[in-house]
């Protein structure tokens, strides 16, 4: 898989050299390239933002450095020149889609360009599973009050564009959101995690939160490991874990459950 990241803070992504994804990069499973947006500026101050048309507080990221950087990553725009370019409005094949709509299977092997944004569709485990199977993902990290809207429209002429939020709160920019997304889907890329079975019994994989885990010693500071886990009875252990998952999900995240499982009076 190839991953391109565009940011005015490329040093944020040094952490990708370490841990699981660092190993995947070294082994050639994942090819990560980080691009400094300011390298595509032409003025002495390497300016990437300007005041918003129509007025208002804050600054907006200028389209030109984005266009140059994305041309470099996605190939130049010769394929959308002339008549094609004129008709290449976002729509039909090249439109902006939200992540839930993009979950539908479709034979479109163009790269996905993800713009993290609090105005995007929420990133979930299902988005992570989908991204883990892509060949080429590009992440464009915005800062300030956002990116000129035409960048999304121009990019949608030659890639699948997705605006994605990692939750209902506002970050200063997309960098931390991209790190979270890469961490979530990177471990699902086939071959990255040594033992894929370890991915199965996790929170969100089966729609429930995970069950509590224990290791030795069996008693610690007066707190005992639940008896059933010491029983060696696999069916009883499995039933207890399932019950714990349901109880925890009902208590902490009832929104994840279908209405018939939300009640507290037995299953
Ligand atoms: N940029 C700012 N806030 C964000 C969020 N919640 N998710 C993704 N990108 C963001």
From TrEMBL:
Domain tRNA methyltransferase TRMD/TRM10-type: 1-77, 109-257
Main enzyme class: transferase
GO biological process, one term: tRNA N1-guanine methylation
Keyword annotations of the record: Cytoplasm, Methyltransferase, S-adenosyl-L-methionine, Transferase, tRNA processing
Main location as per UniProt: cytoplasm
Residues that, per the record, bind S-adenosyl-L-methionine: 142, 166-171
Pfam families: tRNA_m1G_MT (PF01746)
EC number: 2.1.1.228
Chain residue ranges for the region called Disordered: 81-111
Catalytic activity: guanosine(37) in tRNA + S-adenosyl-L-methionine = N(1)-methylguanosine(37) in tRNA + S-adenosyl-L-homocysteine + H(+)
Superkingdom to which the source organism belongs: Bacteria
UniProt entry tagged with the keyword Lyase: no
Keyword Nucleotide-binding: no
Location in the cell: Cytoplasm
GO-annotated molecular function: tRNA (guanine(37)-N1)-methyltransferase activity
GO CC entries: cytosol
PANTHER family: TRNA (GUANINE-N(1)-)-METHYLTRANSFERASE
Role: Specifically methylates guanosine-37 in various tRNAs.
Quaternary assembly: Homodimer.
Entry's family note: Belongs to the RNA methyltransferase TrmD family.
Protein's recorded name: tRNA (guanine-N(1)-)-methyltransferase
């Amino acid at each position: 898989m190839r991953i391109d990241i565009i940011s005015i803070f490329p040093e944020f992504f040094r952490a990708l050299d370490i841990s699981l994804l660092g190993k995947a990069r070294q082994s050639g499973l994942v090819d990560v390239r980080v691009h400094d947006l300011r390298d595509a500026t032409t003025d002495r101050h390497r300016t990437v933002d300007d005041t918003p048309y129509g007025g208002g507080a804050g600054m907006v990221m200028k389209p030109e450095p984005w266009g140059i950087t994305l041309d470099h990553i996605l190939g130049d725009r010769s394929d959308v020149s002339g008549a094609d370019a004129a008709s290449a409005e976002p729509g039909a094949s090249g439109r902006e889609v939200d992540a839930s709509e993009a979950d539908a299977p479709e034979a479109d092997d163009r790269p996905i360009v993800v713009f993290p944004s609090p105005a995007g569709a929420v990133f979930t485990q299902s988005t992570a599973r989908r991204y883990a199977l892509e060949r080429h993902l590009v992440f464009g990290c915005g800062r300030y009050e956002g990116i000129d809207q035409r960048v999304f429209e121009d990019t949608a002429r030659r890639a699948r564009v997705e605006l994605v939020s990692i939750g209902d709160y506002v970050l200063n920019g997309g960098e931390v959101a991209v790190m979270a997304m890469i961490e979530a889907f990177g471990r699902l890329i086939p071959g990255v995690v040594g033992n894929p079975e370890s991915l199965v019994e996790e929170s969100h994989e089966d729609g429930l939160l995970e069950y509590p885990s224990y290791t030795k010693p069996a008693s610690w500071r007066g707190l005992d490991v639940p008896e059933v886990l010491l029983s060696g009875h696999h069916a009883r252990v499995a039933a207890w874990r399932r019950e714990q998952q349901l109880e925890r999900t009902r208590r902490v995240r009832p929104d994840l459950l279908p209405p018939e499982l939300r009640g507290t009076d037995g299953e």
